[in-house]
Amino acid sequence: MERLATLAGEASAQAATTVAEPPAPPAPPDLTAAAFFDVDNTMMMGASIFYFARGLAARKFFTSADLAGFVWQQVKFRIGGRENKADIKSHRERALSFVAGRTVEELTTISEEIYDELMADKIWSGTRALAQMHLDAGQRVWLVTATPIELASIISRRLGLTGALGTVAETKDGVYTGRLVGDMLHGRAKAHAVRALAAREGLNLKRCAAYSDSQNDVPMLSVVGTAVAVNPDSGLRDVARARGWEIRDFRTGRKAARIGVPSVLGAGALAGAVAAGIAYRRR
User: Fold this and answer.
1) Active site annotation includes 38
2) In the predicted model, is pLDDT for residue 275 greater than 90?
3) Distance, C-alpha 108 to centroid of its chain
């Protein structure tokens, strides 16, 4: 498992996409500091994979029954707080089977459409403001997510961020083979990806910051100088309090319960969907 996580992290850093050059920040570029943001329930309300799955189901990639299975997996995760390792292994082995033979170009086009239809209005304004704070300070801002790299890159570009690290699906001549490179970008794999990207980009991790809602991202949060819990689950809230990490909660009242909540400048195209519980199309 650790070997696969390392491979996934290295593959994600190697495949990390940088979006079109954003407008010049008001401050001089700060080349050794950056910020890393998880996506689901951190940058976006809910799970990007769920919205992606809904969009794919509408396009007949799989059945409504498969989508219902995915929702059940999400409910189990939210109640339990952690993914089951056996489930992750099973889902990884089936990952991307339903898009084998599809082209990267096709899935990228569909991802653009799904973002507009289902995700654009789900961004947490508070988290987006935190990302902008880093950009305004001349720092780069990367998304780090189990979401497929193709979709993660679109989210990053639409938000005006630097780029994205995501789960890498194997392709050959622009066509998906139905296999992953390593594993999902999840848990320890995210930490490996951040370290690999930092080495490639010349970042000083002690000057970097990371943001997440999930206890599963403690490995990533632990490799940077400043960790911030955003809309945290109960496990991450406990860890944050114990370690003195800042907590930001943009949820309110019953909404917070239903979904799961600054001085930081110095400091799962479809793998996640399957990993979260969608049965593959070819049965």
Assistant:
1) yes
2) no
3) 16
253 against 224, higher pLDDT: 224
Contact 238, 65 (CB under 8 A): no
Catalytic choice (40, 183, 217, 233)? 40
Architecture per CATH, domain 1-248, reads as 3-Layer(aba) Sandwich (3.40)
pTM comes to 0.80
What is the chain's length?
283
What does the pLDDT look like over 26-40, one tens digit per residue? 678 899 999 999 999
φ/ψ of residue 5, rounded to 5? -65, -40
Quick: pLDDT tens for 191-207: 999 999 999 999 999 99
> Pick from 17, 112, 103, 67: which is nearest to 273 by CA?
67
CB 121 within 8 A of CB 51: no
CB 140 within 8 A of CB 34: yes
At what angle are helices 64-80 and 48-58 packed, to 10 degrees? Answer: 170
Q: Token pair for residue 114?
A: 């799904």
The active-site residue, picked from 30, 38, 116, 173, is 38
